Structures
1.
Amino acid sequence: MDLQSILKEQVLSQVAGQIAKKEGLDNSQAQSAVTSAAEAILGGLGSNVKTKKGAESLDKALGKHDGSILNDVIGAATSAAVQKDGTKILGHIFGDKGADVTGQVAKQSGVSESTAASILSTLAPMILGGLGTAKKDGGLDSGGIADEVTKSAPSSGMGGIIMSMLDKNHNGSLVDEAIEFGTNFFKKK
């Protein structure tokens, strides 16, 4: 099963309902916020796997994210421990741009920045869990993981905004930034 299928079938629809209840949003607003947050995370991961070193770092991190979180998506969506882990993951993905990413997700989906931050930190471990499942099911190595992320990361919309935001020197190339992110990706975890 590929990452897009895993996210659509096992994560996004179930999480949106829980987010709506938890954050006091209507279902369409929750769905919009969850979609924007997922695209932002995938855009950030897409930036990170542009180098072999970044892809290898993500592959290594997936040893801790085997997909078991997807066995109880609803429970994970309300777990403080999952959010704490998610906050760490987001720090590795976005570096010092985390607040900017949160602001973009809030703006795009019409939710507060605190709600956007909560959604991002809830989704990050689930998306890595989805990648862990795709890795396991597909027997993927770091190159296969990079391909899966690249295929799933939107190049326009929120994903494109995030990729542009992570391109620090605005030269249109993520290679220099990806090397830096790849070097630091999940190193502290």
2.
Amino acid sequence: MTGMFSSAAILIAAAAAARGLWSPCGLSMVSAINPLAERARGNRYWLTAIWFILGSLAGGLVLGGASGIGAMLVRALGVRADAALAVGAAGCLVAVAADLRLAGFHLPLHPRQVNERWLGSYRRWIYAAGFGVQIGVGFATYIMTAATYLLVLLAALTGSPAGALIAGLSYGVLRGLAVLLSARCRTPQALLALHRRLSELGPPSERFVMLAEAGIGLWLAYQVSGPVLIIMGAVLIAMVIAPRTARTVGA
């Protein structure tokens, strides 16, 4: 059971980290830490990127450690496997509902950005690592998807502090590696083209993370009640997601 939840938590970590790229902080990091900007500041881009990734790794360590406390609690309480599966599946469905904004429902977004004044006030390793920590921890800046909350829940349900730590580190590392997207942007035109591509991929990334939440929720539900529930759940989620997709296409 630990392995199942660990796999689910890592998959959700990847989805949440990918979606986080489209947060105001994620996009501003692409603009602020790239070869063009670092050269203007008299820095080497690759060293700055390494500091940022190390910071994100530290942030993911904090996230995984906090989730590990929940995992210790789940293990101490002796939560039954079927109860954990039911809670995990319910959490996935709540995450889908929150990301769809059903009836106006959503989880807290924490609309906060990193302080870009650091770029001109501190040494490279301070601003790069500091930004990385804030982004890697998941909850210090804009939360773009309920999958970030779901990650903590699934990591706790592993009942394994080590498994929870790996899930948090996965999130932090993936958020940090996003800074490498701008590695080849050595002209303003190249940076503008990258932002244009990211803008085009924004809506698909939102649908991708919702499908990941729904898919993992159905997988966990299947372990509890078998194929009947998964078929019913698939129909229900299709009914919910299809109208939103249609509105997006028709917009």
